[in-house]
Design brief:
The chain has 185 residues and is mainly alpha-helical. It has helices at residues 14-20, 23-32, 52-58, 62-70, 92-101, 116-122, 126-132, 148-167, 174-184. Helix 1 packs parallel to helix 3. The N and C termini lie far apart (89 Å). Residues 173-185 have a biased composition (Acidic residues).
């Protein structure tokens, strides 16, 4: 378009600028970021079904999320995993705004049957969990899945313990120690 410099739109995309919280660039993408510099839908999805609102929420960009919602973003839109923006929430302030001001559904379940509180719990967003407990009275925290780094750490600790036992001439079998305890009783 003559007279309009769109160079700053070439090295980014709507989801990145929403994650950065840059409202002016969000506006420019929505106005000129579509094919042939056309308008973009505020609820446009990336290849994973992620929207600008998902990005703003997941990076705790409160004002960008508010702007998107005030300008037509769907509060309960889902990505390809069935996650709403509230499922991606990392701060209690954001969760409070989404639920109380914009009526996000705190009980929405994704494709795995998980509610936003479940995601927050698994990701250790404790303030979000505490806030969402108000709406999820039946929430019972389950065991957390260990990521590969945590699992590797546990395995390495066990290997180090075994190495120390061997070095000290101790048995690696717990059953021998249990048998000795039983014999001494």
């Amino acid at each position: 378009m003559p007279g309009i410099d769109l160079h700053d739109l070439q090295d980014s995309n709507l989801w990145l600028v929403a994650g950065e919280g840059n409202i002016e660039k969000i506006k420019r993408y929505l106005e000129y970021g579509g094919p042939n510099n056309s308008k973009m839908d505020i609820n446009a999805k990336d290849e994973y079904g992620y929207t600008a609102l998902h990005a703003a929420v997941s990076y705790s960009r409160l004002e960008a999320a508010r702007w998107l919602l005030e300008n037509g973003a769907d509060i309960n839109i889902t990505d390809d995993d069935g996650d709403t923006p509230l499922h991606a929430c990392e701060s209690a302030d954001m969760a409070k705004m989404l639920v109380e001001e914009f009526k996000a559904n705190p009980l929405a379940k994704n494709d795995e049957g998980k509610m936003p509180i479940d995601n927050a719990y698994e990701e250790d967003f404790d303030e979000v969990v505490e806030y969402l407990k108000t709406y999820c009275k039946d929430f019972v925290p389950g065991p957390k899945e260990q990521d590969s780094d945590e699992l590797l750490s546990v395995v390495l600790e066990e290997l180090e313990r075994a190495r120390d036992k061997i070095k000290n001439g101790e048995s690696l079998s717990d059953t021998e120690e249990e048998e000795e305890e039983v014999d001494s009783d």
